[in-house]
Amino acid sequence: MASSRLMALLFIHFLPLALAADKDAFVGVNIGTAVSDMPNPTQVVALLKAQQIHHVRLYDADQAMLLALAGTGIRVTVSVPNQQLLAIGQSNATAANWVARNILTHVPATNITAISVGSEVLTAIPNAAPVLVSALQYIHAALVAARLDSRIKVSTAHSSSVILDSFPPSQAFFNRTWDPVMVPLLKFLQSTGSFLMLNVYPYYDYVQSHDAIPLDYALFRPLPPNKEAVDSNTLLHYTNVFDAVVDAAYFAMSYLNFTNIPIVVTESGWPSKGDPATEPDATIDNANTYNSNLIKHVLNNTGTPKHPGVAVSTFIYELYNEDSRQGAVSEKNWGLFDSNGRPIYVLHLTGSGTVLANDTTNQTYCVARDGVDRKMLQAALDWACGPGKVDCSAVLQGAPCYEPDTVAAHATYAFDAYYHRMAMAEGTCDFNGVATVTTTDPSHGSCIFPGSHGSNGTFINGTSLAPSTNSTSSGSSLLSFNSNGYVSFRGLVAVLLWIAVFL
């Protein structure tokens, strides 16, 4: 990712031949194989089917995997590995042989719908850049000869770092060093009705920005209007890094006079584990938050500020944790599942359709955010135990959840109780930005949280939703109750102040 951009920036049908708002987006997964105990292709397909994953991207054209996918209907993007690019880009015959061996022997039984010719070629193996477009053309010509060009599109995946000055998005442009490649490449995509493949990683944008990009902005978390990024040229508001990067690509293409090429995001995700000292934001909660919000964002056909309602189909990186990858701890921990098919975390997908069956929102909890303003936390606690009608007797002195005697600990109990009482409905774990959803059970010792019982709450007629907007600790709880268990006068004052300020 280009540092100059980073400092400023912050599953269904493939896209049609031109931008259209009435087509549904899909979410798929990438299948990397750098796994020491890699499941066999039959096991992989069984997991895909169990999780209702209908789109996959392979980093090669593995014969056993393609055979296992036959008859499933799963839409498959196969890849020409980078190490084969030079040979294919210099020989029409070599490209035709590749298509005959890896495509023609599998279709129509295996539903291959796209071919990615190389991956991040311009930035990973720039010496092959001069033959990239010819490689796409040769592969496409072989498909034309086989009368498969209308059903199998050809493109190549780019790192988003090929885009410079990407915020504001309206000023973005492709690195002009690559104009001799990008211009004919875009002409090819336009003429064949294909799409631009783009890898979008807000995690790296956030990390390399050195705190210039707020974490909430990278994770699709709600932002107050004054925290949204505004493109001063278009006055478009950006609430997340993902949309800003995609729109930067749209504007970069329009700068070269290409305005009708859709974008498919071929890789996006967030690592669930990293080195505690150097990668503190690679956590299960952040990975869960990012991927859950990404899936909802894509499947809602939200589009981007530049192209609202236009599908931006996306492949999550990735299906399995790749423990054999070299590099930092985070490099091994981008997967949704381990090699045994166990979910690394549980996605929050309520209201997002049936994609990924490991949606276990019954196992989520609402907790106080770290580092939030203590007064706002106390006000939210008082609201939950007052107008929110939560039974907070468990945090009274001598009760199981009294210890630790801090505002944060007591608020976490009250927030989670309210969240489950309200059936974990959207907006019921916010409390003006001082609460967040997690998959980590906050129960401890004899203090068992409502979510630990795995019970869905029910909506209570006449009970308002928890206050919702944004802010960010610990200290002795100021909450006290009368003999009937209701919040004290001091708590009532706090609630009234809350209502006066925020509602």
From TrEMBL:
Protein name listed in UniProt: glucan endo-1,3-beta-D-glucosidase
Similarity annotation: Belongs to the glycosyl hydrolase 17 family.
EC number(s) from the headed UniProt entry: 3.2.1.39
InterPro entries: GH, Glyco_hydro_17, Glyco_hydro_17_plant, X8
Signal sequence range: 1-20
Keyword Transcription regulation: no
Record's subcellular location: Cell membrane
Catalytic activity: Hydrolysis of (1->3)-beta-D-glucosidic linkages in (1->3)-beta-D-glucans
Main subcellular localisation: membrane
